[in-house]
Amino acid sequence: MALSKTDRRERIRFRIRKTVSGTAERPRLAIFRSNKEIYAQLVDDVNGVTITAASSRDKDIDASKVNKSEAAKLVGKAIAEKAQKAGVETVAFDRGGYLYHGRVKSLAEGAREGGLKF
């Protein structure tokens, strides 16, 4: 029997997490995408700490009234700005089992435009 969509994503996510890990100097940029919103956080896996986070539910992004792909780009820029304040320049990108396409790609491009390297 074929896997459900969520089971398939979980398998891919675990396969990615075997190789991608974050440190204090190079945290993991973890993405979560729901049907309406998109979330990003910088995670230090060694200490088990979230350094900073941004989402499309933040007041300035939510008030901009743009479509979901443009909101994802704004989230990428916001996480990059917060990372710069925290002293982070390079990250390990964790797409969370989602295809590098659409909103995930927009978020990554926004983060790169904001100054993050990955």
Describe what you observe in this structure.
Part of the 50S ribosomal subunit; part of the 5S rRNA/L5/L18/L25 subcomplex. Contacts the 5S and 23S rRNAs. It comes from Marixanthomonas ophiurae. With 118 residues, the chain is α+β, with helices and mostly antiparallel strands. The protein has a single domain (5-114), classed as Nucleotidyltransferase, domain 5 (2-Layer Sandwich). It is built from four helices and four strands; from the N terminus they run αβββααβα. The chain has helices at 5-19, 59-62, 68-85, 103-113, and strands spanning 28-33, 38-44, 49-55, 92-94. Strands 3-2-1-4 form a four-stranded mixed β-sheet. Strand 2 and strand 3 form a beta hairpin. Helix 3 (68-85) packs parallel to helix 4. The radius of gyration is 14 Å and the shape is globular.
Structure characteristics:
Ribosomal_L18, 4-stranded mixed sheet, alpha+beta, 5S rRNA binding, Nucleotidyltransferase, domain 5, 19% strand, rRNA-binding, 118 residues, ribosomal protein
